[in-house]
């Protein structure tokens, strides 16, 4: 299982993004591995599409890629607060970390700080 940072999907759908080729490579090298994203990070992906009135289309594109959304657990507030306190990562990054913890997933990100936070928690990084 791979937990996706929003930036990976943003790059995948934007050919002009500096990480576009790396995002395509991630999906090409892991075609059968299940992928998930948390609802807050999924919302990050949908912001630009929402501005353009294409958020429903983008949601369909994510489903077509087989990307599941892992819901926040009932104790999300406490767990996110602890992640933020222990890693000092930004809250959206803590949401990625929480998704990875919930699903025993490795994290896919281009963010070096998020990679370091994941490794400090014993989480794998793709």
What would your notes on this structure say?
- The protein has a single domain (2-120), classed as 5'-nuclease (Rossmann fold).
- The protein has seven helices and four strands.
- It has helices spanning 6-13, 20-29, 39-51, 55-64, 76-87, 91-103, 112-120; strands at 2-4, 35-37, 67-69, 106-108.
- It has a four-stranded parallel beta sheet with strand order 3-2-1-4.
Helix-strand layout with pairing:
Layout: E1 2-4, H1 6-13, H2 20-29, E2 35-37, H3 39-51, H4 55-64, E3 67-69, H5 76-87, H6 91-103, E4 106-108, H7 112-120
Parallel strand pairs: 1-2, 1-4, 2-3
Helix pairs in contact: 1-2, 1-3, 3-4, 5-6
Descriptive tags:
globular; alpha/beta; 126 residues; single chain; four-stranded parallel beta sheet
Low-confidence stretches: none
Give the strand order of the largest sheet, numbering strands 1, 2, ... along the chain.
Answer: 3-2-1-4
Q: Any idea of the CATH class?
A: Alpha Beta
Helix content: 55-70%
Morphology: globular
The beta-strand count equals 4
Query: Span from first to last CA?
Result: 10 Å
Percentage of residues in DSSP E strands = 5-15%
Number of domains: 1
Gyration radius over CA? 14 Å
Alpha-beta content class: alpha/beta
* Average pLDDT rating: 97
Number of helices: 7
Main beta-sheet strand count, sense and barrel state? 4 strands, parallel
CATH topology-level name: Rossmann fold
Question: Would you kindly provide a brief summary of this structure?
Answer:
With 126 residues, the protein is of the alpha/beta class. The chain has helices spanning 6-13, 20-29, 39-51, 55-64, 76-87, 91-103, 112-120, and strands spanning 2-4, 35-37, 67-69, 106-108.
